[in-house]
Prior knowledge:
Layout: E1 19-29, E2 35-45, E3 55-58, E4 62-69, E5 72-73, E6 80-82, E7 85-88, E8 96-104
Antiparallel strand pairs: 1-2, 2-8, 3-7, 4-5, 4-8, 6-7
Amino acid sequence: MRTDQDQPVRLADYQPPDWLVETVELDVSLHPTATRVRATLKVRPNPSAQAAAPLMLDGDGLTLRSIKLDGRPLSADSFTATPDKLSIPQPPQRACLLEIETLVDPTANTS
């Protein structure tokens, strides 16, 4: 959820991440109103996490164009995407390769 003012993050509120990102590769094609970003992330469950958890990534004003897990496109019912968040409720509980292609309009970024 976005607000007009940043909320403080307190050490007491910190939780270790459920997923660890080992590597990130970005391929960016700049355009004044439709910049394409292809991100390839090698992710794995955090062995310190309490239980199996969804894989959730934050964004800011993104339009999802495609998503693949280990080279296979994900069906529309296996993830939820909004301009500010991507959630995969039941990812494989092992290391995997996540490929995401998004579009962003840089001229709409007023933050």
